[in-house]
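Re: that chain you flagged

S.,

Sorry for the slow reply, it's been a week of failed gels. I finally had a moment to sit down with the sequence you sent. For the record, here it is as I used it:
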Amino acid sequence: MNTARVVAIIPARGGSKGVPGKNVRTVGGVPLVARAVHAALAARQVDDVFVSTDDEAIAEAARSAGARIIDRPAEIAGDLASSESAILHALETLEASDERADVVVFLQATSPFIPVDGIERAVDAITAGGYDSAFSAVETYGFLWRRTDDAAADAINHDVSHRPRRQDREPHYLETGAFYAFDAEGFRAAGHRFFGRIAIIEVPERGSVEIDDEDQLTVARALAPLLDAPERIDVDAVVTDFDGVHTDDTAYVDSAGIEQVRVSRSDGMGVGLLRKAGIPLLILSTEANPVVRARAAKLRVPVMNSVADKAAALRAWAEEEHIDLSRVAYLGNDVNDLPAMELVGWPIAVADAHPKVHRAARVVLTRRGGDGAVRELVDLLLPE
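Prediction finished late last night. Pasting the structure tokens below so you have them in one place:
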């Protein structure tokens, strides 16, 4: 029996005006294009994932996430180019390489929370449900209006003289733009994503977030730690800041100028468990005070302190240790951690971190610095 070959295609050009560099901007510490690739790869029926792009940074991020790259010609990568043109070009490129595509899943990287089960239901609608095309949508009972030529309000989907209760109204469906699916041959003939018998694939409200401006990017980053919260984190190494992570970011200074800090015994236990599991941990700090090295010695972990450039130090350490930065978790709390957090696959923030650190984090912990945050991270790293 010949089963349908399902390919996912993600058009992602480099010339966004509303949010410059949009497709490689991060939400939850992951580039938007990579988030779309991850969602497509997680769908059980998808055989291959392709990103069509004219931009090397997008191509690199997509390739690292597991996608194959299709070079998008400049003539179909401008502001007026349609997504359909990129998909048609991708299909032609695959055909020229003798690669079959029976069903296409078209995803938009501007939707950061693409539900994998929604993709799967869309593909099932095409392959077994008797539909030709499908799209993601959220149910809405909203009262819609438009402005007339003289700027007066005009009702679209309701009678202004009657306000029925929600339960008495017919629901409508708002297209989210997150994903579409369609029969490849039907798409070639129609030249458009909607044709034939069309299926509505309902997704949760969170799946409707779409990024077209900086405000929407801010909202998505705030939601990411809540919606992405993993049950487990899989990494090869952990790097942490010291002040505000192993401590509560306060210092006690006596009359001789000697500083003392408050640390958590549960964090110490967590570090011990991490060491026992063979997962390397590095403390990376800008602080020059000897207390940093004293605590690291107590924990029996390596430390780099008095570091002016954390990103450069982290890069050098990873290269020396032959560790892939995409397989590193970095736990930070303040803005001087941001350059290092941008380098790793798992940027993580303590609960009381600076808001900018929260927005850059893939995970925001529930524990504060110096109050069990390191132990919480260790518990996410190690299986029960």
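What I noticed first: Residues 237-381 form a domain with the Rossmann fold fold (CATH 3.40.50.1000).

Talk soon,
D.
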